[in-house]
Design goal:
Layout (H helix, E strand, L loop, with lengths): L2 H10 L4 H27 L1 H13 L2 H20 L13 H19 L8 H19 L11 H18 L10 H5 L3 E3 L18 E4 L5 E2 L1 H8 L17 H17 L10
Antiparallel strand pairs: 1-2, 2-3
Helix pairs in contact: 1-7, 1-10, 2-3, 2-5, 2-6, 3-5, 4-5, 4-7, 4-10
Enzyme class: transferase
Keywords: Metal-binding, Zinc, Zinc-finger
Organism: Parasponia andersonii (Sponia andersonii)
């Protein structure tokens, strides 16, 4: 078990039983959906050929971005965020098929490299035969709340994370998501406190911006700040971002915080 897998498992271990049960059920549903779609790809010569052609047309950078978007959807499920954001568009159907096939090819190459020594034209029959056993072993959902169901899902997340961070450095300043900034609430300043950006007093009775971490700022100060950074100037709390790699980093840090926070949850709501 690698470091990323261990980190995710440790984070999920902090969840109360009912939350873990709900998460396991959600992961089962998502895993079943993905497996059914992959089975359809391997059963149809047309779908398989289109997906394989799509992969061949993508550069390494585009493949990295594809896996990053797939990883992001998995991390959102694992972190069970309480703010629903649609700032990053969902993966298109053809790209979803392509990334499912790509991940399956990677898994087969790792565990059974000889299976791919034939020509790509012959891959479908080989992959379909290898996949049949794993699909049957997945079962019908009996015992869905068994924690062992999480392991293969988490291992896939960890593999995607290794690839994404290996191909592109995650980190640096990114802007807060526009949809998140627009939804930020106003609060009434009580007076006496100062804005951490301009260092001027926030006059009592004046409307100011309140971030999810409860820190207050002048609107005129915080808006330009959030156009460049998705962090609170006071505590570095991270808001959602439209940057795929920045959002992966943000959600990964949510998982880290789950480990360090007692009581089985994140200390601050997303």
């Amino acid at each position: 078990m690698d470091e990323n897998t261990t980190t995710i498992m440790a984070a999920l271990a902090t969840l109360p039983p009912h939350q873990l049960s709900n998460l396991t059920h959600s992961i089962f549903s998502e895993t079943l959906r993905r497996r059914r779609r992959l089975a359809a790809l391997l059963s149809s010569q047309t779908l398989f050929s289109l997906s394989l052609r799509r992969l061949h047309s993508l550069s390494l950078h585009d493949k990295t971005l594809l896996i990053a978007r797939h990883l992001l959807s998995s991390l959102r499920l694992l972190t069970t965020t309480t703010i629903t954001t649609n700032n990053i568009p969902p993966i298109k159907a053809r790209d979803s098929d392509a990334v499912l096939l790509l991940l399956h090819l990677c898994e087969v190459r790792q565990h059974n490299p000889a299976a791919l020594e034939t020509t790509p034209f012959e891959w479908r029959a080989t992959l379909r035969g290898l996949y049949a056993d794993t699909l049957l072993s997945f079962g019908t959902g009996i015992g869905v709340h068994n924690g062992s169901l999480l392991v293969p899902y988490i291992e896939t997340v960890a593999r995607c994370l290794r690839f994404v961070t290996g191909e592109r450095k995650v980190g640096g300043d990114v802007a807060a998501a526009v949809s998140t900034v627009v939804a930020l609430p106003s609060a009434v300043a009580s007076g006496g406190a100062e804005c951490a950006i301009c260092r001027e007093e926030m006059r009592g009775g004046r409307e100011v911006c309140e971030l999810p971490c409860r820190h207050l700022f002048h609107w005129r100060c915080v808006l330009p700040w959030l156009k460049k950074r998705n962090t609170c100037p006071c505590c570095r709390f991270q808001l959602p971002t439209d940057d795929v790699f920045g959002e992966i980093q943000r959600l990964w840090e949510v998982l880290i915080k789950m480990i360090s926070t007692s009581g089985g949850g994140v200390g601050m709501k997303e």
